[in-house]
Amino acid sequence: MYAKIRDTKIYFDIEGLGLIPYGSKMKEKPTAFLIHGGPGADHTSYKPLFSSLTDQLQLVYFDQRGQGRSARGNKDTYTLENNVEDLEALRAYLGLSKIVLIGGSYGGMVALSYAIKYPEKVQALIAIATAGSYHFLEKAKEILQQKGTPEQIKICEYLWAGNFKDEKHLSKYFQVTAPLYSLSYNNKKNTYATHNFKRTILSVDAINLAFSTFLREYNIVNQLSKITAPTLVIGAKEDWICSPEFSQEIAEKIPNSTLKIFENCGHLIRADQPVKLIQEITNFLDNL
């Protein structure tokens, strides 16, 4: 499905009922927006993992502007500010009041930024393996020098500079660095990361713009106290690009927050510990 909002066209998909029988009445479930990372990826890696949350939530998956199945356009508009405003426009387009936000990595940055600007629209917030400032870049470069192979270090230069040549080049980056993102990537029994890398529609313009411009200045740490919704912050002990210290920083700044740091887990928590991830989210939602 597509929504023509603002100056673009956003692809979205909905899973689960919003209104359900509840005894002699009908009950409305909260609606959650799942905000994908990258930038330059799409929503598909969240399927079908988060499907089990439909017992508690109606789920809205969507691709951010210029990414996945959403419309391409002026690449200079692929900014964090526009991602936040597109999210707000999609909420209004669907006729929703308050929403639950679930965002991982860059999607977590979008979720946090939205919750700062539109706190009255957020029922609950779940920020997974993300950061509140550009300092995550500096730390990631340090970790890469300690843990990365020569090939990984070399190809990451294109990430830091934001100058991947095309989608094929970006795909190679994810193939080379996959063991950094997921500790279980080389486990033949765990094909989650492998399959999702192949299914994802990549956008080189979105990731190049982010890493060459606005992520270098991104800093919302001092505004996190504006977030009023109950918040679950999840980090990973072995996350190379959004080190767990940044999850801790986020949780410390948000008044009504809970922090969970997963051991033996990389940036792709949904690949390394999917069962525990869903359980933590379910428990959090149960206590709202």
Can you give a write-up of this model?
This protein has a single domain, classed as 3-Layer(aba) Sandwich (Rossmann fold), CATH 3.40.50.1820. It has an eight-stranded mixed β-sheet, sandwiched between helices. Strands 3-4 form a two-stranded antiparallel ribbon. The radius of gyration is 18 Å and the shape is globular. The relative contact order is 0.16. Helix 1 crosses helix 2. By secondary structure, it is an alpha/beta fold. It is built from ten helices and ten strands. Helix content is 38%, strand content 19%.
Shape-level CATH architecture: 3-Layer(aba) Sandwich
Share of helical residues: 25-40%
The number of distinct β-strands equals 10
Distance between the termini: 30 Å
Oligomer: single chain
Write out the CATH superfamily name.
Answer: Alpha/Beta hydrolase fold, catalytic domain
Major sheet details: 8 strands, mixed
List the helices and strands and how they pair.
Blueprint: E1 2-5, E2 8-15, E3 19-22, E4 25-28, E5 31-35, E6 58-62, H1 80-93, E7 99-104, H2 106-117, E8 122-128, H3 135-147, H4 150-161, H5 167-181, H6 192-199, H7 204-212, E9 231-236, H8 244-253, E10 257-262, H9 269-272, H10 274-286
Parallel strand pairs: 5-6, 5-7, 7-8, 8-9, 9-10
Antiparallel strand pairs: 1-2, 2-6, 3-4
